[in-house]
Amino acid sequence: MGRPGLNRRQLLGGLGGLLTAGSFGFAALGTGADALAAGADTRVRYWNLFSGGDGSNMIAMLDAFRKATPDIAVKDSTLQWGNPFYTKLAMAAAGNRAPDLGVMHLGRVTGFAPGRLLDPWDVGLLAEYGVHEKDFSPALWKRAVVDGKLYALPLDIHVQLCFYRKDVLKKAGLLGDDGRIVPVTSADEWFDVLKEAKGATRKGLQTIGLWSNDQNFQWWFFVAFYTQLGGTWFDAANTEVTFDTDKAVQVLRFLRRHITDGYADPGFAGPAGAEQFINGSPFVWEGNWSVPVYSGAKLDYGATPLPPVFGKQATHAESHAFVLPHRSDRGGAVNEAAHRLAAYVVTHARQWAAGGHIPAHTPTLSTAAYRALDPQNEYASAMNHQATEPKVWFAGSTGILAQRVGPIVAASTMGSTEPETAARRMKGALTQLLAMKNPMDGKTAAQGGAAA
After folding, report:
1. pLDDT of residue 20
2. Contact of 234 with 434, CB cutoff 8 Å
């Protein structure tokens, strides 16, 4: 039933207060055969959460691996994205029925009870298959380390971007000689750019799509700009909240101004902002996963990290990473095959980059094939200035932190809460979360251990 002190019943009890009803449902779709492929000596069971274009790209990479290593059969299953995936993975690890290889958002690893629900990677074995720490951003690698052990192997970073229409910006005189948006170094410069762009925009279209009523996007944008200001969340021991409400108010006022100054229309929030961009709106802020959508629409566009309006480059980033869900029998040929599969995908991420993601494997970024990708080559520098959530158990994609604090940011952006009030509520939520115990292991952030 898993490691001592954690069984399925305890896990379900702990998760019950955190997950919504019906979140245990999932869809499992596989491209690998249940039986060993012809000539294969070993089978790796692999769970992921990739659908749509990401799913297609992952399948292509798995098929390439199967062709290159016919002695290893891969049985891959795609589960429902978000909390249903994490719940299923946790239950499987707790019950010793986990797959040999899995995928997680890097921000969720600390909360997944490393050492209990996750097994550490054998860095020596990874090195045999061409994966070395030196080939990754130091900051990214450090996020994957808990209590001195590597618990996640980063595949990519996915970032929030400022997409812009080159045709509209050219009309507004906002393109440089290189055909890219003019540099922006302050909030005033940014709103000057919006003003000029608005003058060149067709009537009926907003100037920028901001996902203004979406708690996740508003939280991601907040993280980016709060990081630009040098804001912090907790002290090194995770015992004290260091959240700066004055800096938070600056960010909240900045986000809200897009609406009060008439550049973002709340009526075109959410996916409608992307539709407006396709129809001629000059700007939209959203994740790099939209690259295939806009490229498929044959737009003349560019994409850059969120503007450094507070002087420091920083754009929100998360990462997909390979993990080893806990298995009491981990080891031997199957474990080696799992290491080999993950290493292959990470070091052959050119296909993955087509989906807009920035490969974590830095040698891939320097290849001619990657440098030729447009607009990916315009925002690849985001690898060097990632704005990430704090390394605590309640952070990460679809995590409790975003659920608690994201709605507060959205309420401020939409105007139903004053920025000063919102900042105080955010600090209060952070204080409550710091005192909460992780249902995975019964420990607070201070007790959980996250030192690199």
Report:
1. 31
2. yes
> What DSSP element (H or E) covers 364?
helix 362-365
Nearest alpha-carbon partner for 423 in 250, 249, 233, 224: 249
Q: Sorting pLDDT into bands at 50, 70 and 90, what band is 41?
A: confident
Phi and psi dihedrals of 139, rounded to 5? -65, -40
Category of 417 on φ-ψ map: left (φ > 0), alpha (ψ -120 to 50) or beta: beta
Distances (CA, A) of 131 to 19, 102, 121, 136, 344: 36, 17, 11, 9, 9
Residue 389 tokens, joined: 């959530």
How many whole angstroms separate alpha carbon 429 and alpha carbon 452?
Answer: 26
Has residue 31 got a pLDDT over 70?
Answer: no
User: What is the pLDDT at residue 174?
Assistant: 98
Q: Is 389 exposed, middle or buried (0-12, 13-18, 19+ CB in 10 A)?
A: buried
Residue 200 has pLDDT above 80, yes or no: yes
| Beta-ladder partners of 157 | 358
CA distance 177 to 363: 29
Locus of tokens 């020596």: 124
Chain segment 51-80, per-residue pLDDT in tens: 888 999 999 999 999 999 999 999 999 998
Opening angle at CA 155, ends 154 and 159, nearest 5 = 95
Strands 42-48 and 101-105 turn out to be: parallel
What is the SS3 assignment for 313? Answer: coil
What is the bridge-based pairing of β-strands 42-48 and 283-287? Answer: unpaired
**Tell me, what amino acid is at 251?**
V
Q: What tokens appear for 272 in the block? A: 């409608």
- 193 contacts 184 by C-beta, under 8 angstroms: yes
> Is pLDDT of 93 > 60?
yes
Query: What is d(CA 366, CA 345) in angstroms, rounded to the nearest whole number?
Result: 17
One-letter amino acid at 118 equals L
Instruction: Give pLDDT, residue 10.
Output: 36
Q: CB of 1 within 8 A of CB of 94?
A: yes
Cβ(352)–Cβ(64) below 8 Å: no
Distance CA 401, CA 391 (A): 11
Please provide the DSSP assignment of 114-167 as one string: BTTTEEPP-HHHHHHTT--GGGS-HHHHHHTEETTEE--EE-EEEEEEEEEEHH
